[in-house]
Amino acid sequence: MSMCNLSSSLGSLNSFRLVSFHHSAIPKITKPSLFSLFPKVVSSMSYHKELAAAKKAASLAARLCQAILLFSLSLSLSLSLSLSLCSQAVVSFILQRELPSESFSLVAEEDSGDLRKDGAQETLARITELVNDTLTSDGTCISRVSEEDVLTAIDSGKSEGGSNGQHWVLDPIDGTKGFLRGDQYAIALALLDEGKVVLGVLACPNLPLASIGGQDQHSLHNQVGCLFSAKIGGGTDMQPLDGSSPIKVHVSAIENPEEASLFESFEAAHSKHDLSSSIAKKLGVKAPPVRIDSQAKYGALSRGDGAIYLRFPHKGYREKIWDHAAGCIVVTEAGGEVSDAAGNPLDFSKGRYLDLETGIIVTNKKLMPSLLKAVRECLDEKPSSL
User: Fold this and answer.
1) How far is it, in rounded angstroms, from Cα 59 to Cα 13?
2) pLDDT band at 180 (very low <50, low <70, confident <90, very high)
3) Any known ligand binding at 216?
4) 171 assigned to a ligand binding site
5) What is the pLDDT of residue 40?
6) What are the distances in angstroms from CA 147 to CA 3, 50, 70, 116?
7) Per-residue DSSP letters for 115-146?
8) Cβ atoms of 178 and 266 closer than 8 Å
9) To which protein family does this belong (predicted)?
10) H or E segment and range at residue 332
């Protein structure tokens, strides 16, 4: 398929169904007032424009991913890296267009270094064309962007984040190995305000609208492509990526661990499967683990597909905030809890990395006490796992 036809393909992509499942932030400046003497109060009515912009940005990036997979468009860089760069540029452009601000700050995974190397000119030109086609595919009039514009947009993700001001947090392609296998991946976008996650969006192009537990056999079972969105105090919504009406979702209400199902990373390199197995055994979980790539696990958990998610990276690995920020609020606003292995909430205010105790555990509020107890007992029995 020629590049000149990609725009129309992007615009009509929803008729297809897939067959398989960084500059420093500038603090916000406001005029002093009496209200500045009191703690900031966040209303559930806040962040409406920001959430709408985030949903648009993540949806368009997901549409781009679907189009490239569908038509197998080749690029000289690795496919996953090229697509991540495209996705990051698209999200950056949309956020800055929808929410113009001199203090735009984006904490993201990629930078433009590879595109600035000798021999990358052809790849940069094709990425620029892909970005232009994607930006115009939603029918919004926008002037075409240049190659330098694309490089600048990608490098807007170099922010260090932190506890002051607002910072967008993006993983442009979360779960690249899942993406390359045709399995689960996600575009994960969140907003930090004064170090707190206040909204999050997960676009999951390959996640079925029906439960991945396979118990729901109605018409949704054959449809894939989910968009999860949440803002603080507003609950969690799920809708098809085609823009159909959203529905509210909630985590599982299971209280008995024996009835719970457990999610973990697909790749053993990303989490200690043996430790998760020991914890599940101590809890009495009977079902085998469901292994899924990316933050699609958070989305599936938020709608009750499973009841527990365990992540225990290998020694020396540092968790990045873009791997959890969006998923965290999607689950918590659906009634779940997310903590480290010691029961501490995740702290996204320290920069690009999470400083946490051993691992990450996710479940509903009823199961969390017994899960924390099992985790601690297993870690005490296996000190080498720390």
Assistant:
1) 12
2) confident
3) no
4) yes
5) 45
6) 16, 27, 25, 11
7) GGSTT-HHHHHHHHHHHHHHHHTTS---PPPP
8) yes
9) Belongs to the inositol monophosphatase superfamily.
10) helix 325-332
Q: Do the annotations mark residue 114 as ligand-binding?
A: no
For the chain, counts of helices (H) and of strands (E): 10, 12
**Pair 191, 167: CB distance under 8 Å:** yes
121 and 115 Cβ atoms separated by less than 8 Å: no
CA distances from 3 to 67, 180, 231 (A): 11, 21, 37
pTM score, two decimals?
A: 0.87
> Residues 234-282: pLDDT tens digits?
999 999 998 899 999 999 999 999 999 999 887 655 567 889 989 999 9
The two tokens of residue 68 are 């490239």
Q: Is residue 236 within 8 Å of residue 302, measured between CB atoms?
A: yes
Give the lowest-confidence range in 10-19, 54-63, 132-141, 184-193: 10-19
DSSP-based helix, strand, coil % in the chain, nearest 5? 40, 20, 40
State yes or no: 323 annotated in a binding site. yes
Question: End-to-end alpha-carbon separation of the chain, Å?
Answer: 50
**CA dihedral for 244, 179, 132, 16, sign (positive or negative):** negative
| pLDDT at 8 > cutoff 90 | no
- Report the sign of the C-alpha dihedral through residues 245, 9, 70, 140, in that order: negative
Beta-ladder partners of 226? 204, 240
DSSP code of residue 15: G
CA 21 – CA 175 distance, rounded (Å): 14
Q: Is 149 annotated as a binding residue?
A: no
175 close to 83: Cβ distance less than 8 angstroms: no
Query: How far is it, in rounded angstroms, from Cα 349 to Cα 195?
Result: 4
- For residues 9-48, b (16+ Cβ closer than 10 Å) or e, as one string? bbbebeeeeeeeebeebeeeeeeeeeeeeeeeeeeeebbe
